[in-house]
What we know:
The structure holds two protein chains of two kinds. Chain A is an alpha/beta fold. In chain A, α4 links the parallel β5 and β6. In chain A, α2 crosses α3. Chain B is of the alpha+beta class. Helix content of chain B is 55%, strand content 17%. Chain B contains ten helices and twelve strands. In chain B, the strands form three sheets. A five-stranded antiparallel beta sheet of chain B has the order 2-1-5-4-3. In chain B, β9 and β10 form a beta hairpin. Chain B starts with 6 loop residues before the first helix and ends in a 5-residue tail after the last helix. The interface between A and B is medium-sized, with 26 and 25 residues.
Amino acid sequence: MVRPLHALTLALVGTLLFSGGMAAPPAAPPTEYEVKAAYLYYLATFIEWPAEAFGDDGAFVIGVVGDDPFGPILDQTLRDKTVHGRKLVLRRFASLSGEPGCNLLFIGSSEERHLDALLKTLQGSSVLTVAEIGGFTERGGHIGLRLEAQRVRFGINVDAVRRAGLRTSAQLLKLAVPGASASAAGAGPS
Amino acid sequence: VTRHLPIRLRLVGIGVLTGGAVALLICMTVALHARSVLRTSLVRTLSVQASMLGYNALSSLLFSDPDSAEKTLGALAAEPQVVRAGVYAVDGHLFASYLREGQTATPLPPTLDVSPSGSWFGSDGLTVSRPIVFEGQTVGVILIVSDLKQLHGLLRGYLMIMAILLACALALSFFLASRLERPISEPLLELEQLAKRVSLERDYTVRALPRGRDEIGALFAAFNDMLEQIRINEQELRRAQETLEQRVAVRTAELGVANKELEAFSYSVSHDLRAPLRHISGFADMLREKLGDATPEVSRCLDKVCQAAGRMGNLIDDLLSFSRMGRAELRATRVELAAMVADIVREQSADNPGRTIEWRVHPLPVVHADPALLRQVLVNLIANAVKYTAKSPIAHIEISAVQDAREVVVSVRDNGVGFDMAYAHKLFGVFQRLHSSNEFEGTGIGLANVQRIASRHGGRTWAEAKVNQGATFYFSLPLNGGTVDERQVEAHPAG
């Protein structure tokens, strides 16, 4: 599962996430899921949620449903971080029935089978869905992660995101892999 | 050096220099300020651009997308002064870069020490670096390098304007100074002209036109006062001179008249005295012939009468010759002094057969004088020497002459009775006698004649003596041909 990534990305992500300081050499090259965990965090910072999307505690909740490919990496990545000034909280769900009570939901590849039902459940709620399932955006998902030429890239289903009441930063949009066809390359892990 | 320049030029120079210096100072200050403002403005513009580009490149950096970062930097193409730009990752590696079209030289360094953020002017222009910050942490650095062509172009424009301003300021300074210096230089020049005129023409009636109350006005007033003072002084001096001249003329005329009267008087007296004297002498002779040798007593008395009459005749002759002296014309010619003196010495020796006289005659020069008058002088002096040595057993009489560049001084020295120098000033006066006529006979006119003749020749007379130790008499004759100054003639008015 873990593949060597672009040297620069590794350096950047590694420096930022693990050393937390300037120009310190990384202890080891980051793995694919270390990069993807960082991307989850970055994505959250470039998208705006409506105020009513947050619970009483005001925390920003990242949920993981189905198989969790990150393991402890995600916990380490998000520890002590904030998004839009909100505390980050990580929740894991085995399956979903009804509102998950989170702002960003990573859908594990194990949920591919009942993806349509899952997305339907989330319709009308301000939950950003992220997955590394091939054709995720074409099927109504918001952001699909994939590997391209040793680099983690993503596609955005702009209409679906807008329908969910979320605002995407132009900075994020310019980085998105254009068109739904790109997701057909299906570079995501299976 | 400037002291030799005309005052107008100096005043204009001062004005132009002052104006130019002030204008130059202002221009330099403004130029420096403009340079600083332009630099600050360029730094600010570039910093804003760097901040904006850095913000826009943040996502590219986070999501490791150099292509999109380069696209972002590509927006700099609209800014022609930006030569190159780059985004560096936090570890210092070049993440994305931009080079202006046609820009090949000095590419961006592949790595960068990201810590110094800010702006600095280097050889290749202005470099601005701004950190790229994500959630309070620096995740990269953006670097923009701009050339200074635009800045220098603007500065050149400013400098051009300032050069024009400076030229205008100099021209204006010159114009103003050459107008404004006039109230200062013109009065001074006017005063100079006036002073020159006064000193050249000696016209003390000119006046400077009155001026204002400043120092120049005071100078003019003082100048005028000075002129007035000079004019008054000069007038008084002239008046005094005129009155003096008048007075002198009057006195001279009076003196002339008195002198003439005196001469006429003495001439007529001398002449009229002769007639009765002739009778006395004639009848005394007749009486002696008639009475014959009646009694020795009568004969002795008649001899005395005849002698007295003869002495009086001599006296009258001397007086006549003295009074004629003023009228006689000088007939100067070459006179061999040696021959004349030898002749006189012979005469004197013959006239005094009973005396023992040792003559010492030194070599004597040839002089230019009236021979008859000169002879009279020499006869007088030598006869005097013979006369006053009568009581010496052996008389020593020495005649010598000393010649210098201006005159010949002739001296007659004797070893006679001499005289007291206290009375030397009386020697040459008429009828002035230092010895009684009982002791030495004489009329008292001889030395007066000597002095008169010498002075008519332009010479002088004087004497040195000690009582009983002899006397020396001197007279001088000037060497300029014996011509006599008119004034000296006038001093002895003739008929």
